[in-house]
Amino acid sequence: MIRIEAEPWRKMVEHARATYPYECCGALLGSVDGDGSKVVTRALPLENASEGEKRVHYVMRPKDMLMADQEARRERLDIVGFYHSHPDCDAYFSETDRKNSYWYSFVVMSIRKGEFDHANSYIPNAEQTDFKKEELIY
Ligand SMILES: [Zn+2]
Q: Which residues contact 107 (CB under 8 A, 6 or more apart)?
C-alpha cells in the first residue's frame, strides 16, 4: 500500500495539470513501514527531459534522480517511488513504464482535458517482466 499525504498529492496534481498536454514526472519521498507500506510526505517534481514526443513519453535525467536522492537523504527520507501523468489516457502501466521501472512504486495519474481524473500505483517485479497493482490512498 502507498499513502500520499495531502501536501505532496496537491503538488503532484498541480504539476500534472501545469504540464498538460505533456507528461510530467517526479520523485516520491517518504518512508516505508515495517509491514512494507509506504507513506509519501514529499513530492519532488522533475523535468521531463524526453527529446521525443512528450505527450506520450517521459525521461528523468540521471542527474535529476541523483539530486532527488540527495534531497531525500538531507531530509532523512527515502525515495519510495516515482510518479508521472498520462494526458488524455487512462492511468495504466504501459510496456515502456514496465521496462523503465526499478522496484519502486510507480504512481500514474490520468489527466483529462487538463484536469485530474484518476490515479493508480504499480510495483514491478525484480526482473521488470511483470507488475502488480498496489493499493493507492490519496
Ligand atoms: Zn506511463
A: 2, 4, 12, 28, 81, 82, 83, 84, 119, 120, 121, 136
